[in-house]
Amino acid sequence: MQVKDLSPDLILTNGCFYTLDSESSVARAVAIKDGRIVAVGEEAVVGEMTGPGTQQLDLNGRAVIPGIFDSHHHLMSVGAKLSAIRLDECRSLEEMMELVRERARVTPAGEWIIGQGFNESNFSEGRLPTRHDIDPATVDHPVILMRFFNTDAVNSRALRLAGVTRETSDPAGGRIEHDPDGEPNGILRASAKMLVRGLLPRPSMDDMKDHLRLACTEAHRYGITSVIEPGLHAREMRAYQSFYDDGELSVRVNMMPSWHGFNEDETETVLDHLARDSGMVSGLGNGWLRIGALKMLIDGGTTPHTAFMYEPYVGDSELVAFNRIPQDKLRQYFNTAQELGWDIGIHCCGDHAQDMVVDTLAGVIREIPRADARHSIIHGYFPTPRALDQMAECRLATVVQPTFIYWEGNSIFNDVGEDRALNWKPVRKYLNHGILVMSSSDVPSTVSANPFVALYSLVTRKNNLGREVALPEAVSREEALRAYTTNGTWLTREENLKGSIEAGKVADMVVLERDYFAVPDEEIKDIRVEKTMVGGTLVWEI
Fold this sequence. Notes:
- By secondary structure, the chain is an alpha/beta fold.
- It contains 18 helices and 25 strands.
- A 6-stranded mixed β-sheet has the order 3-2-7-23-24-25, covered by helices on one side. It has a 6-stranded mixed β-sheet with strand order 9-10-11-12-14-13, with helices on both faces.
- Helix 8 links the parallel strand 15 (224-232) and strand 16 (252-257).
């Protein structure tokens, strides 16, 4: 009879392992067997487990942290962005238009030209592109250029295809911008984006899998080993399943089906098929691919002035805001999810939106108690004292996007004014109330998924211009890192699977070029990932 070799497959030695266990212990060696951690401790002790087939990897004293868990990351959309023209490094409108011209030269006439990720605050001109900028670049193609968050710029041909004219009304929750003569200028904000985006060719199953392949590689370079992918429709979930079945999924994914606040024609079928008909609930799946909370959407964002606020935006004479779901309907949907055993993750940015959501959800939780419920407020920009108290009472978590502090930390003052900006993304307040905070990037709605830029912003509260944004809301380095590792596992019910470097958990780890806990504050954002390991396998190395 053959005896199974119980010795580790791999021992990592000469490292500084920040385990993020309950005691925040630091270890020097880690042993791995069958993709899981089997021992953590001093080199001499772990080394005693070495067997004839054990490999050793000397980390040369490098710092090691648990795999990054990005709790709001549109992985498939990132892949689509990587397939489009990359606009995130453009520093002028002319530079961006040259990229459009280059793509037009190799694209058959009539086909769409798509660009993603620009940020007009990086442009020397300091403004959004309009159709007047884009039209000279090509007359043969419809063009859509997507800002990194919530605004698109399109050319005249795209407007004609969409039937957008001076008579076209703004859709609910969106805005079509116009020239002084009343003609649309090509800038589409918030839900108005869908007037043109709805015309884009539907990606095939192979397209979506290609996008996932690109996105997984991009995630690995930043040390991201797990994500929550929010707002998926049925075809996208099938693509994930196929990608997993093919053995290609190398990022652990928790899928959030899109529900109310998105396309109302599709949302009922999601709940019918996943919950009422099948009996499925949040948490179904395995360590690679799971079904998570239902994703809902109640308002927009601050930049396009569509977050549902109590007070008007700076420069707007009226309150420019909306809520996508009436409160009576919101209560009905929360009731249904709570009764059927589903978790809710709901987008709300404005203070009015967050109060409405938290008041309603807290009421449902009190009437229909469910000990295993793990609901979350996504974004949660401006919580009121009432919202904070009820979130703590009802165990509602919040998913924040610290990279917005870095990239949007100047425009927030222009959007809501100095006083309200001081309460923007108040992570310290959330933690002081005992509210669990998860960090995320929300890519491709921001410039990049780089977690070290986010960690820098959490610790320093500085934007990319060096300006402090609500400094009293800064947190410690460990608090910041836990928000990007251990905390996310609560939402997905995977506390015993991942999030820290402990025996029994999957071997998801990140080797850093420089020590996150030792470098000066200003250098946190510049830390690079040297190696990324998922399930004991190296998936990224420089």
